Amino acid sequence: MISRNGTGVDNIDLEAAGKKKIQICRTAGANAQGVAELTLGLLLSLVRSIPFSNACLKKTRWQRSKGTELKGRVLGLVGCGEIGKRTAKMAVGMGMQVVAYDYLPDPSWRLNNFAYVDLADLYRQADFISLHCPAAANGEPILGAGAIRKMKKGVFLINTARASLLDHNAVLAGLESNNIAGVALDVFEVEPPDDYRLVQDERVIATPHIGGYTYESVTRATVEAVENLINALK
Question: Which of 59, 92, 101, 189 has its CA 20 to 30 A from that of 80?
């Protein structure tokens, strides 16, 4: 048995484990609150230029960037599991409209100012798009050049899920053409990253995979991982 203190299994050879009948246990949802809160933090940092303002003042420069209010804006969630739902609740609490695409939408889940839509409608409506889904089985990015062309001009992107969901070259091109107004990243193909081109763009905010790195999330995941082992041994 392999007991993960997290939800991702990207670093486990699932085919080999299946052949050897090795059970894989995860701690699904243990880090959901931490990731959802970071998503809202990154969203606010993007629209209010918080990192930029802080960096300017530390260099003794009084320089301001006009921000955007979130109330009345549309947040699009690609993936609406536990993390997506918690993100949606907080965003609605801030006065946002939320639309979400999920491969298996939950028909029993209800929230004011929330609706499930297909990807085409999400791209058309969303001012902000946040990723909360697993990586594609074929490894292809969900947000590539074609998807970016369908989005609103000036869209903001947030990725706290999997690095492979974004085509980074397409995102760079979107920033250069001003089709994308800003990007926030918490995940990378290689960690620490070996390609800093996207990170170094002034319209990109990057954090070192800290979504589930809170005292509470780490404690929940560790306890659940040990409980999974104990239950298996029983």
Answer: 189
